[in-house]
Amino acid sequence: MENLISLKEYAELYGVTPDTVRQKVLRGGFKSAQKIGRNWVIDKNEPYEDNRAKGGIIKVKNIKKAVEDSLSSTYGYFMYNSKANEVTFQPILSKENLPDTDDWEPYEHYLGKVNELATSKEREDDLKFALESFKNGD
Q: Which of 16, 30, 61, 111 could pair with 86 as two cysteines, CB 3.0-4.6 Å apart?
């Protein structure tokens, strides 16, 4: 109990903003965070780990190729293979034929279906957002 400090104190200790710490607490990003009354506290010895992509750049193979592959199909979905760190596009016959992800390997992750009206830039931005959310555990 003696190592518990406020989120503001923790943020100052680790050189981040209190809002950043609060968001990470609300997403379950700290093991020691707990709410006492209406205030959050955290163990001052729990290290702060920033797992976000740096500089907004997501280093994943084949994003542009997956987007290019998707442009020739009306329906399909994007899949992220965390073992190979790459994105692929899987065409399907209709929007009702989405995959049964129960059959997938643990390292295969569904990122979303194709928005048939989206441009290639919009599809690429959507993919990057989905990857960012996946990697941050959102």
A: 61
* pTM over cut 0.70: no
CB 81 within 8 A of CB 110: no
Tokens found for residue 92: 């399907």
Q: Could you read off the pLDDT of 44-96 as tens digits, one per residue? A: 999 988 766 554 555 788 888 888 888 888 888 888 888 888 899 888 888 77
CB neighbour list of residue 25: distance below 8 Å, 6 or more residues apart: 7, 33, 40, 42
Q: Specify whether the CB–CB gap between 68 and 78 falls below 8 A.
A: no
Contact criterion met (CB below 8 Å) for 66 and 87: yes
Task: Give backbone dihedrals phi and psi of 47, rounded to 5 degrees, phi first.
Answer: -65, 145
- The three-state secondary structure class of 112 is strand
